[in-house]
Amino acid sequence: MNSALIPNLDLRQENVAVPLKIENGAAHTLAMSARQTHSLVILDNRELDRQCLAQCMAAQKADLQILAFGSIEEWKQKRDEYAPLSAILLNVGGKKVDEPAVSDQIRKLSSEFASTPLIVLADSDDFGQIVRALEYGAKGFIPASVSVSVCMELIALSVAGGIFVPASALFAMRHLLDSSNATARPLAGIFTDRQAEVVEALRRGKANKIIAYELNLRESTVKVHVRNIMKKVKATNRTEVVFKLNDLFQNNLSGGLAN
After folding, report:
1. What is the pLDDT of residues 75-112, one digit of tens each?
2. Which residues make beta-bridge pairs with 21?
3. What is the pTM of this model?
4. Is the pLDDT of residue 139 over 50?
5. Coil, helix or strand at residue 43
6. Burial group, residue 67, by CB count within 10 angstroms (0-12, 13-18, 19+)
7. What does the pLDDT read at residue 127?
8. Quick one: which of 135, 137, 146 has its CA closest to 168?
9. What distance in Å separates the CA atoms of residue 11 and residue 20, rounded to the nearest whole number?
């Protein structure tokens, strides 16, 4: 039978980077390659998941020692036997980042290994979960939807000092920014920029003198803006203009969100 190299499947999952040479039905452990100068630790309390992931990664990255453990404490017991740590990949699976046990683990690891990037691998690419993972100290967030080769590239990016988040998070951020802008200036098509500033001040119940001071205008100029605003909303007094402005604001905002 032809020889083949496959990643080692250690039942204890201490080191899956050491390959096995399968020859004539006998397995012989090979020494760790001299090229493996750094190691990646995969943390996952699900044994089968971490075994499979570690083997796939070892096949992709021959120069990186891939280690898989159920906890960081297991790795610490034999850390001197392995190459220097370059990154930690915490696989949370379907758990949420803001679950107490998960968030505490991220905080603890990122604090204890401040100079080593901690990357979260999760089934979800929910924007809120990504933001929380970064807030807790993670240097990257990888969704399980990516391929193993892409996952390895993203880990390398984190090791180089970069921070990776899925494209879906960027799209979510853009949506939030667009919604924020629509909320901040929902009546921009009705009033000029200066009138919009006065409108916001009127809605807050501010007097003309205060509006003039805050906008660096003459009080007489503010009065002109107020009169023009009243004409546009067809109001006859200051109380009515505020009422109609609030009504316009709510209607315009509701219409924008519906789109």
Report:
1. 999 999 999 999 999 999 999 998 999 999 999 999 99
2. 5, 28
3. 0.56
4. yes
5. strand
6. buried
7. 80
8. 146
9. 13
d(CA 77, CA 88): 16
Residue bearing tokens 């930690």? 88
Structure tokens that stand for 198 in this block? 């006065």
Sign of the C-alpha dihedral computed for residues 174, 176, 178 and 184 taken in this order: negative
Is the confidence at residue 29, as pLDDT, over 80? no
Could you please report the per-residue DSSP string of 119-188? EEEES---HHHHHHHHHTT-SEEEETTS-HHHHHHHHHHHHTT--B--HHHHHHHHHHHHHHHHHH-TTT
* Pairing assessment for the beta strands 26-29 and 19-23 based on DSSP bridges: antiparallel
Extract the runs of DSSP E, i.e. beta strands, from the chain: 4-7, 19-23, 26-29, 38-43, 64-69, 85-93, 118-122, 140-143
Reported as a pLDDT band with limits 50, 70 and 90, residue 62 is confident
Nearest-10 crossing angle of helices 193-203, 219-233: 90
d(Cα 254, Cα 166) in Å, to the nearest integer? Answer: 30
Burial class (CB in 10 A: 0-12, 13-18, 19+), 241: buried
